[in-house]
Design brief:
Elements lengths: L13 H18 L1 E5 H18 L4 H11 L2 H14 L8 E8 L6 E7 L4 H6 L14 H17 L6 H18 L1
Antiparallel strand pairs: 1-3, 2-3
Helix pairs in contact: 1-2, 1-4, 3-4
């Protein structure tokens, strides 16, 4: 049983798994978005988010620690120069997983994993949070102005006469006259 085991072994030995996650993390940092299986994406999320947090503090020690995981100078440079600056104010949650369906050959769940701050489409859709509004009694000046406008509108409108009601009332009047005769 797997009680309390947090690591998904992904069907690989530890050396293979570490190398695969390192390569995937480098690709994610360089391309900002990669397509993979859901299980690998979840494992990659656990692998890369602490590295991004570590990259927020630009020191020799943190660079060496991140390099020990990534094993790529270009990826480390990109991470500290561009990515860390862009996510500096974010308290966590640097990646997003978007499911895309199942793979044709083996029906594996596929998804995109991407860095949150680099998806232009999602950033355009983000709306500023509306401030909470409360209903208040309108001020005296505003109330006078709206009441005057409402009175003008009511005075200019003609009464609406329903033709169906007129027809019904005429029919009932003629029926009443016939019964009297």
């Amino acid at each position: 049983m797997r009680h309390g085991k947090k690591v998904n072994h992904l069907g690989r030995k530890s050396g293979h798994r570490k190398a695969m996650l390192s390569n995937m993390a480098c690709s994610l940092i360089e391309h900002k978005k990669i397509n993979t299986t859901l299980a690998k994406a979840k494992a990659l999320k656990l692998y890369v988010e602490p590295l991004i947090t570590k990259a927020k503090t630009d020191s020799t020690h943190s660079r060496r620690v991140v390099f020990s995981y990534l094993k790529s100078k270009e990826a480390v440079t990109e991470l500290f120069r561009d990515v860390a600056v862009k996510v500096a104010d974010r308290p966590g949650g640097y990646t997003r997983i978007l499911k895309t369906g199942n793979r044709i050959g083996d029906n594996a769940e596929m998804c995109f994993i991407e860095l949150v701050d680099y998806n232009e489409n999602m950033l355009k859709d983000v709306k500023k949070k509306a401030t909470s509004t409360r209903r208040r009694k309108p001020s005296a000046k505003k109330a006078e102005g709206t009441e005057a406008k409402a009175a003008e509108v009511v005075a200019t409108e003609e009464p609406i006469v329903d033709t169906a009601e007129e027809n019904n009332s005429e029919a009932t009047d003629s029926n009443a006259e016939e019964k009297k005769d």
